[in-house]
Amino acid sequence: MGLLRSRAMSVALARRRTSPTQTGVRYGPVVVASIAFALPIFWLLVTSLKKQSEYGSALFPSVLQWANYELAVELADFGHFATNSLVLSTAYAALAVLVSALVGYGFARHSAPGRGKLFMLVIATWMVPNLVLFVPQFVLFARIGLTNTYWPWILWGLSGSPFAIFLFRQFFASFPRELDDAAEVDGAGPLRIFLQIYMPNAGPAIAASAIFMFLWVWGDWLYPALLLHQDNTTLAVRMANAYVDPHGNPMQTVTMAGVALYVLPLIAFFAFAQRFIVRGIVTTGIKG
């Protein structure tokens, strides 16, 4: 205890001796980077509170225009299309996480001929751009009548995600083999072991993969624009052409208000869950 106390006092004294120059060198780049990243958000919020006539001419609004937010909600039918985005994102994320966890569990805990080569094939598909795969998928969906429905996202969710499979495989590989042996002695099969032992202890990996899967669908514009009708499309597609005046001119300040409403919940959600993301990604590197 005495050694630890003296060590703690030495560290405290060393911190006190740190000069202002050293502190500036240490934290200056972090402060500059934080300001640089915060400027676009600041500009977005300030612009959303301006009059349309002040856009591009005034740095700050003369009078805060909170009505821009009301107009953004009204013009885009925010509640209806936000519900569409929420349902689609949640369904895809839930299916992709469950399927990817099952596949990752198989790669991590079960031996089979060609397992390593098959896993490398899964990782290789991660490197293929999504747009390259989307062209034949779109032709297939159109021929079997799945356009203007949510079925493409359901099928994508059921096929899993190479990123999430890699995440779960690395995470499950760090579990001690004794857990499987003890469960098998008690008569548990592979599926029961997965559901009762692995999934309850995979919180960080589940949270990290679910957040990425959810954000991918919530923030996507291209696939809903190509696959869905105007009535059942997502909020991102609706907002792209909702904010115009009766003459067809864009309403930039109202658009910024809509973007703020669209993005701020995601920022708050990400800030709340970032510790799970970091823990999940870091933990997956424990064992190869």
Radius of gyration from CA coordinates: 25 Å
How helical, in percent, are the residues?
over 70%
Average pLDDT rating: 84
**CATH domain fold name of the largest domain:** MetI-like fold
The domain count comes to 2
CATH class of the largest domain, named: Mainly Alpha
Our count of helices gives 14
Determine the structural class based on helices, strands and strand pairing: mainly alpha
Which properties best describe this structure?
mainly alpha, MetI-like fold, 2 domains, globular
Please provide a written account of the structure.
- The radius of gyration is 25 Å and the shape is globular.
- The protein is 73% helix and 0% strand.
- The chain has helices spanning 2-16, 20-48, 67-75, 78-109, 115-126, 130-143, 151-158, 162-173, 177-185, 190-198, 203-218, 222-227, 235-240, 252-283.
- The protein folds into 2 domains: 1-37; 76-283, MetI-like (MetI-like fold, Orthogonal Bundle).
- The model has no long low-confidence stretch (mean pLDDT 84).
- It contains 14 helices and no strands.
- The chain has 288 residues and is an all-alpha fold.
Q: Any chance you could write out the topology, listing elements then pairs?
A:
Layout: H1 2-16, H2 20-48, H3 67-75, H4 78-109, H5 115-126, H6 130-143, H7 151-158, H8 162-173, H9 177-185, H10 190-198, H11 203-218, H12 222-227, H13 235-240, H14 252-283
Brief digest:
With 288 residues, this protein is mostly helical. Helix content is 73%, strand content 0%.
